[in-house]
Design goal:
five-stranded antiparallel beta sheet; globular; single chain; 11 strands; four-stranded antiparallel beta sheet; alpha+beta
């Protein structure tokens, strides 16, 4: 709406009764007994789904909620100092338009075609984190998906590969303006849908948090 992010501006935008179409994501979980995607255990997201570094920062910063938005910066610094990597397999489905975007924009690996699944690609190995967004802004000050549109039928995937602490700090600072998409450790991909098969974390026995925001 080209207004500042504050309560008064939000109230004015609502009062003007302007509406926009907005994509909604359906998040399903794999049933360990049947091996099928469950229709019963699911969530709906209007904002984002994250795993690894991004969900760690989100969930683990809850204890600093009294700091406001600064809690994310503080916890991000903690996670940069004490890095975690996650093994995984990420499969994503794209379109011709999305494939063209990914070839032009993404500096990182776009993955390899998946046999028997036309339009699907696979990224596997160790990553620091995954952030999948429906809209450009992940927080009021973080333009995590600068190429995202409200109703383009796409999910913008930000995949961060393992990198040094100095580059992680550069990434953290670049997120505010959306400049992280040019970083060598980042794959910025437009997808129609995606699947994540988490492996183990390098420093814990768990597979990490999955955070669904805007549900």
């Amino acid at each position: 709406a080209d207004e500042p992010c504050d309560p008064v501006s939000c109230a004015l935008t609502i009062a003007r009764a302007h509406t926009r179409a907005l994509d909604s994501s359906v998040v399903r979980f794999l049933d360990s007994k049947t091996g099928e995607w469950s229709n019963r255990k699911q969530a709906h997201s209007l904002l984002s789904t994250s795993w690894g570094f991004f969900s760690d920062v989100d969930i683990e910063s809850e204890k600093f909620r009294f700091l406001g938005g600064a809690r994310f910066t503080l916890q991000a610094i903690v996670r940069i100092i004490s890095r975690r990597t996650y093994s995984c397999e990420i499969l994503y489905e794209t379109t011709e338009e999305g494939e063209d975007h990914n070839e032009r924009v993404s500096r990182g690996a776009r993955g390899e075609p998946v046999p028997g699944r036309p339009g699907w690609r696979k990224i596997h190995g160790d990553i620091l984190g995954l952030w999948a967004l429906n809209v450009p802004w992940g927080t009021e000050s973080t333009m995590a998906a600068p190429f995202a549109k409200f109703n383009d039928g796409s999910i913008d995937l930000v995949v961060v590969r393992p990198t040094g602490r100095r580059n992680m700090v550069k990434l953290l600072l670049a997120f505010d303006a959306g400049d992280h998409v040019h970083n060598r450790a980042v794959s910025y991909l437009k997808a129609k849908s995606f699947e994540v098969y988490p492996g183990k974390c390098s420093s814990t026995r768990s597979g990490g948090f999955i955070a669904v925001d805007g549900e």
